[in-house]
Every structure is written in C-alpha cells, then in structure tokens.
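Researcher: Quick test of sequence recovery. Tokens follow.
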C-alpha cells in the first residue's frame, strides 16, 4: 500500500472509518469523502494525530455527478493518481414493498445505485490512463439475496452488482479490477434510523468488515478477489 492513493467514499461511516484507521499505517495516501465536513475534519484529525498519513478531505454528495467528478479532479491535483476506490457510502430503507414512498425509492436508487455508479465511472476514467486500478464496492448481502422488507434496498444493491460486473468486463483490459463485498449486518450508524427489529450485538463489527476490504487490497497484482461474502454467525445466507 506504500504510496498508493486510496479514495474512500463514506469515510466517516462505520465501515469507512474503520477502514481508514486500518489503512492509516499502510503508507497509503487517503482521500476522505462524505457529505458532512465536520465529521471529515474530526476523522482526519484522529488519523493524523497518531500517524503521518497524507490526507485529503473532500466534502461530496455522490448523488451529484458533478461533485463526484470534482472529487476525482481534486484527488489527481493533490496526489497525481487514483489507485483504489472504496465505495462505502450508502443508506438503507427496509420496509414492506407497499409502504415504500416514491421519495424513499428515489433516495435508495440515487445514493446506493446511481451514486456508486458515478464514482466508479469517474474513478475508472482516471485509472484507465495508468492501466491500473482497484474498485471495491461494499454491496452487502442484500445485493445477492432477497429479504422481506428489502424491496427498495435490494433493488438498489442488486443494481450495483449488475453494473459492477459489466464494468469489470469492460475495464479488465485496462488492468482495473473489481471486488464486491457481501457483508451481512454490520453494527454501524446505518441501523440508527431503521425501525426493523434487529440485534446489533450479534452483527459483524465494522473492524471485521474493514479487515476484509484491507485483505482484498493487499492481494498481489495478479490476484483478483472478485467477491467476499461474510455473514454473522446468527444470520447465515447460503
Ligand atoms: N451496516 C450494515 O449492516 C451493512 C451491511 C452490508 C452492507 N452495508 C453497506 O455498506 C455501506 C456502508 O455502510 P455503513 O454501515 O458504514 O453505513 P454508515 O455508518 O451509515 O455510513 C454511511 C456513510 O455514507 C456517507 N454518505 C451517505 N450519503 C452520502 C452521499 N449522498 N454522498 C456521500 N456520502 C454519503 C455518510 O457520510 P455523510 O452522512 O456525512 O455523507 C457515511 O460516511 C453502505 O453502502 C451499506 O449499504 C452495510
């Protein structure tokens, strides 16, 4: 990871922040992205107090394609390249299909599906020039398995799997690899606004999810960890 430039979208979230803590000692330059600039500031100061990591903070709403392009431009202006994109921004609406408001469906598709799409598109354009790159999309197990109350969320996450696999096919000749992560429940603020009854104590820890991402990033160039699926023991999907 020495001298790699890693863009983490959703860096202030549960999984994203845990990943940045793990990468802070790796020698990588970190681009911390999310909407809330105060939270980005707090995270950056926590990371740089302990270590001499090179950090760029960019406040960005990934539902806006122009802001996403600006993020990639700022990264290249600061660090000259993008080696790795980790998409950990996202949110959940878990409700019965006929209780989902149009605005909630739009929010799922705009953020989870279209926002991730824009970030992959924009990062890939930069990576293509150097014929090298790694895109990690944190999909979640509801990107490949159905669950009652998951209609809107699954619609967005199945879509991420679909476009990622197509982009991976198109981009492999440019040396760009994709890894998709299918985590089961992870105990993070993601669950704070979800009314579904869940036992957060039995979920995966955000550090566990982050370690899986760090593992994928540590694989040698010839190895492509295409999919990583980790479920909590209490809730297995096969
Ligand atoms: N937690 C789980 O059980 C679980 C399981 C499987 C998969 N996942 C997926 O993993 C990803 C990360 O989840 P998490 O649990 O870490 O969630 P989280 O703690 O709620 O973090 C979400 C992150 O996304 C950012 N974000 C939200 N909307 C954004 C926008 N429009 N533009 C840019 N950034 C935005 C948030 O920062 P700001 O609010 O400041 O923008 C925050 O940094 C999501 O895609 C989620 O679907 C989660």
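Model:
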């Amino acid at each position: 990871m020495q001298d790699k430039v890693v863009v983490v979208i959703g860096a202030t979230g549960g999984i994203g922040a845990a990943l940045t803590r793990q990468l802070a000692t790796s020698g990588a330059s970190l681009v911390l992205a999310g909407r809330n600039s105060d939270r980005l500031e707090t995270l950056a100061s926590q990371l740089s107090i302990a270590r001499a990591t090179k950090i760029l903070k960019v406040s960005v709403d990934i539902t806006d394609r122009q802001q996403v392009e600006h993020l990639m431009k700022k990264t290249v202006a600061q660090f000259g390249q993008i080696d790795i994109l980790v998409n950990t921004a996202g949110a959940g609406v878990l409700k019965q299909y006929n209780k989902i408001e149009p605005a909630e469906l739009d929010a799922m598709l705009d953020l989870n599906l279209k926002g991730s799409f824009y970030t992959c598109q924009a990062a890939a354009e930069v990576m293509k020039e150097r014929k090298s790159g790694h895109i990690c999309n944190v999909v979640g197990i509801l990107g490949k398995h159905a669950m009652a109350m998951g209609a809107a969320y699954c619609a967005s996450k199945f879509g991420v799997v679909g476009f990622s696999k197509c982009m991976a096919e198109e981009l492999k000749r440019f040396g760009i690899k994709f890894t998709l992560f299918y985590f089961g429940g992870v105990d993070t603020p993601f669950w704070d606004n979800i009314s579904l009854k869940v036992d957060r104590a039995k979920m995966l820890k955000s550090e566990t999810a982050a370690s899986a991402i760090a593992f994928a990033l540590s694989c040698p160039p010839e190895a492509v960890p295409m999919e990583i699926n980790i479920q909590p023991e209490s809730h297995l999907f096969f």
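The chain has a mean pLDDT of 96.
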